[in-house]
Amino acid sequence: MKQLPFAMGALLCAQAFAAPSPLDRVYTADQNTNTISVFSPSSNTLLGQIKLGNARPDVLSPLYRGEINVHGLGFSPDHKTLIAISNGSNSVTFIDTATNRVKGKTYVGRSPHEGFFTADGKEVWVVVRGEDYISVIDPATFKETRRIQTAVGPGMVQFHPDGKLAFAVSSFTPTVDIIDVASHTIIKRIDVVSPFSPFLQFTPDFSEIWMTHKDVGKVTRISTRTLAVTGVIDTGFITNHLAFAKVGGEVRAYVTVGGENVVKVYSTGKEARLLASIATGALPHGAWTSDDNSRVYIGLENGDGVQVIDTATNKIIATMGGGQAPQALVYLSNVAPTADDRANLVPRVNQDARNMQLRPAGGKGKGKGFIVLRSLGVVESIEAFLYQLKPDTVYDVYAGGQAAPVGSFRTNAMGMANGTMIGPQQAAGAITVKENGGGVVLTSPLPE
Questions:
Q1: Residue 9: is its pLDDT beyond 50?
Q2: Of residues 355 and 60, which shows the higher confidence score?
Q3: 8 A C-beta contact, residue 222 and residue 191
Q4: pLDDT of residue 379
Q5: Do 304 and 365 lie in a common domain?
Q6: What would the 3-class secondary structure string for the chain be?
């Protein structure tokens, strides 16, 4: 089968493709274990992981080899190369999908986030979110060839399949940069509702891009013909990624809403309508559609795995354990040499995470949050996500009835804070959050 431009493979209608093949693969970028998890979509199983670095907390010491915070994913038009973006070690890793072997690596600027091949496969563009440019890399030599100046904090870039235009969203500036691919120059900037966008995707006919706004829980639609905003959708708390699928002749958008643990399904006509809300595991993040449009794959950032949505019924039909804190997720067709190929994969390096919701103590107050517990042997990491608290205020986190806090956080101007601590194994006991010098404001039930 002739391979299509990268964005087309997961988006075209079912008539063009067969059902998920045993040679297809789903990949997730696992931020905490620094792995790429490799799944078989035909059997809904984890085949193994590509180890790019050591799992946390080993990365707290000086690092000379290996990658930190494996976060973004992209791929070549022929599906022969997967790229993984590690924002902690500023690297772009090139992986041969037939062998799962690393074949090259490029180091770029501070905190890259995502990267994709151009439609002709001749360049890789990586957004350097910690700075203000896109790094252009030659995938044959793995060398940076130029930089494209953008707004501060580019979050992601994707290419129209005609090869003429690229669209770059930002994580720190409320604009979208429209870039002429041939000249590597910005030809237009579009104002949008929020400065924080981590993801964009084309509709199946490439007439629009939809971009997520994680901070305000919205999705913006932009016409690729007029290069103007055509609508804004209120989607929900921690809106992460989205994918499209053609179902019964209609195109639907599947939006991961991490703060609500749901995938929301929208129509894609002039006025987007909410069609369904699909309950998922903890903190849905990455999303991608199978080539036949029959499945949408969802990465669970706090559930350490992937869930599979049947688009005909909007039901979860499978759950697969994977790496810790999966971020980006992609589906690639016809890449493996055999159905059960596990070349250069290691067995799963981590155990399942445990999740605990935080609620106002005594049922009073409006604060909320959640805790993720991950085993590190005799201790475990405790990831805290706190919301709707007092701004610019210190809060202490206590684990399992311990007298001393395992960590303290100062909220930002929006009353939000998050971070990771190391604490005792939670065989029993709850997590409590106290205002520094005050009483309990949030508490959890016993660990699940």
A1: no
A2: 355
A3: no
A4: 77
A5: no
A6: CCCCCCCCCCCCCHHHCCCCCCCCEEEEEECCCCEEEEEECCCCEEEEEEECCCCCCHHHCCCCCCCCCEEEEEECCCCCEEEEEECCCCEEEEEECCCCEEEEEEECCCCEEEEEECCCCCCEEEEECCCCEEEEEECCCCEEEEEEECCCCEEEEEECCCCCEEEEEECCCCEEEEEECCCCEEEEEEECCCCCCCCEEECCCCCEEEEEECCCCEEEEEECCCCCEEEEEECCCCEEEEEEEEECCEEEEEEEECCCCEEEEEECCCCCCEEEEEECCCCEEEEEECCCCCEEEEEECCCCEEEEEECCCCEEEEEEECCCCEEEEEEECCCCCCCCCCCCCECCCCCCCEEEEEEEHHHCCCCEEEEEEEECCCEEEEEEEEECCCCCCEEEEEECCCCCCCEEEECCCCCCEEEEEEEECCCCCCEEEEECCCCEEEECCCCC
Whether residue 6 has pLDDT greater than 50: no
Structure-token match 């931020």, residue found: 31
Q: Which amino acid is at 155?
A: G
What ranges in 215-283 are assigned the alpha helix state H? none
**Predicted confidence (pLDDT) at residue 380 exceeds the cutoff of 90:** no
- Predicted pLDDT of residue 59: 56
What is the number of structural domains in the chain? Answer: 2
| pLDDT at residue 365 in the model | 80
φ, ψ of residue 363 to 5 degrees: the values are: 75, 10
384 and 282 co-located in one domain: no
pTM comes to 0.92
Determine the pLDDT at residue 381.
85
Determine the average pLDDT of the residues in 406-429.
83
Domain assignment of residue 386, given as a range = 354-443
Rounded mean pLDDT, 175-204:
98
Can you give the pLDDT at residue 57?
Answer: 66
Distance CA 426, CA 157 (A): 41
Judge if 237 and 382 occupy the same domain: no
pLDDT band of residue 3 (cuts 50, 70, 90) is: very low
Same domain, 163 and 249: yes
Strands 91-96 and 81-86, sheet pairing: antiparallel
| Mean pLDDT score across all residues of the chain | 92
Q: Is the pLDDT of residue 129 over 60?
A: yes
Residue 346 DSSP one-character state: B
